[in-house]
Amino acid sequence: MNSDSMQRVAVVGAGGAIGEAFCRALLDKPSIQQVFALGRHPALLAEISEKVTPVTVNIRDDASIQAAAEHIDDNSLDAVIIASGMLHDDAVSPEKASRRAAVRPCTSCLM
Prior knowledge:
four-stranded parallel sheet, 2 helices, single chain, alpha/beta, 4 strands
C-alpha cells in the first residue's frame, strides 16, 4: 500500500475481536479513506467512523460472498485483510495448544 495515497481496505471478519482491532487500527491512519467491514453483523462498526462501510457476508454461503463482492465491485481496494477463522468446534480442534506453539517475531507488517 502506498502511504501517500488515500487507501481503501477490506477487512473480512470485521465483527470479531481481531477484525475489529484491524478496523480501528486502520482508521487511526490518516491515509485510510474507506474501510469495508465484512462480517455477519458489521453494522455496529459503522458507528466507529463515517469511513466504515459495513458489508454483511457469511463466508460459508456462496450467495452471500457473491453479494458482498458485488457491493464492493465498483470500488478498487488497496488491501484485503482476512481476520476470519475458527479455532475449534464440535468436529475440529486446534492442532497445538497455544502454550506449545512456536512464536516468531513478525518482520513484515501492514501497519
